[in-house]
Amino acid sequence: KQALLRRHPDTEDKVKEQVFQILPEELHSKVPADANLQGLLAWCAQQLPKETYEAVCADVLTAFKEAEYIVADDEDEELDGDTGHWALSLPTYMHFTSPIRRFADVLVHRRLAYILGQRSG
To answer: E strand or H helix at 68, and its extent?
Structure first.
């Protein structure tokens, strides 16, 4: 069995590092030590002026690794369970909206039509 998935690797550590590079040095020691990315950004929202916080958030977006499309196969040992979508906190993610918007959507629709055709025939 195969599936066309959208994988988004975990880049939380890289993104947190990016936030620390932007923060003024005097704030580094005040950041909660156990904060995850969401907690760190919430802390920044409380500590920084609005414009600075918005700039931090905009800059942080550059640290995220882009999601990618992969073909996952039940027998594919190379993936080794690495099919998750970190940004959505999902172990696997397959999306499609309108086939006129994305070629990947067309592929998913075709695959589903093929599978459904096999089962009904």
So the answer is: strand 68-73
CA dist 106 and 66 (Å) reads 21
**46-76 pLDDT, tens digit each:** 999 999 999 999 988 888 878 888 887 766 5
**Per-residue tokens: 110:** 């075709």
Enter the DSSP assignment of 30: G
The packing angle between helices 12-22 and 37-47, to 10°, is 20
Q: Which two tokens stand for residue 76?
A: 């594919």
Per-position DSSP letters for 43-58, written without gaps between them: HHHHHS-HHHHHHHHH
Q: Is 19 exposed, middle or buried (0-12, 13-18, 19+ CB in 10 A)?
A: buried
pTM: 0.62
Phi and psi for 41 in degrees, rounded to 5? -70, -35
Read off the amino acid at residue 90: L
The pair of structure tokens assigned to 69 is 């499309």
Query: From residue 91, how far is each of 26, 42, 118, 121 by CA, in Å?
Result: 38, 25, 27, 32
